[in-house]
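Morning. Coffee machine broken again, so started the prediction first thing and wrote up yesterday's gels while waiting. Chain of 390 residues, entered below exactly as on the submission form.
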Amino acid sequence: MSSPTGWRRVALLLFAVGWGANHFGALLLVYRERLHLDPTAPALMFGVYAIGLVPGLLLSGPLSDRYGRRAIVLPAAGAALAASVFLGAFGDSFPALLAGRLLYGMAAGSVMNPGAVWVLELSAARREATDAVVAPGVGARRATIALSAGFGFGPLATGVLAQWAPLPTVLPFVAHAAMLVVALAVAIGAPVPPPRPRTAGPLLRLGLDRTNRRGFLRAVASMAPFVFGFASIAFAVLPGMLGTAALGSAPIAYVGLLGAITLGAGVLAQPATRGLDATTSARLGLAIGALGTAAGAAAVAGPTPALLLVAAPILGAGYGICMTAGLRNVEVLARPETRGGLTGLYYVTTYIGFAVPYALALAAAHVSPATALVCLGALALLAAVTLRRP
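Came back before lunch.
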């Protein structure tokens, strides 16, 4: 392994898989109208994706610890390609959409976890080979930027295609499949991380034990649900609270734009983590995210739709900073032979944040939507205060 930029090959694949994970959200309005779905159907399509995602995240890490990152990431990316083609071909069937999203969730989780660890390891190996030319923590930032760029670009591209191009349930998947083919071809030549010694023990190890369990709970687990919690508020909660009429004449494209702004801000916020230790970065991200929920509450209470464009980047910055901080702490806590397992566990705890829209909907039955958002922001500040170093 000698290429100083080999990590970019894996990062491109993370970008492509992230694109497919998030662009589906921009199509929900289209599917609901064309297939005459009831209001619970979008939540079901998100839920079935999460059902597939969790085992993908949990199993791929330990398997890649044992068999290598490439052996898991490349076949899983091929499965993601197959799922995207399937979704584009059978967009007129709700059961087929559920099956396709389940498959894509499993495949995406199996790429994201070991793929992120692959980037971490290639970055760390470069640092060791060049006497710290590559600063500590840069691998976590690279993995976050790659995934966040895909998460953000996917809804934007699909929102534009679905709003104004023909075949709105087909062309977005054609574009995504083409991107995945290119990314797979590039990733085949990615360097292999240095081999790790094989150790005895069970095949599927999450890497959480008495040496790091307390550190994980104190420094990672209490922060992690806010990662995607902040992001989902920006483009899944706030538009729904304001209603489609508030989103203008092109609501599909507008939701896609909000997703791009949110996750793009997560990328642009990465320089804020330089020079800070991981736990301080996590506290900063939680505080910024709490500020974003306050801006969202103001947008809903007004109602002031223009404030969505203020709340989205603030929430996105909180998401990006927290995501990177968690990966950096996991890098410290995990042993090399179980790094994939512990990283998978971290990603699963971040995806708990996708339950935030449902929790806010339940809370809004008893208090105003703005009050529910303010309470969530207060919980984020509480998590920041109680966070401890690993």
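The chain has a mean pLDDT of 87. Going to sketch it on the whiteboard this afternoon.
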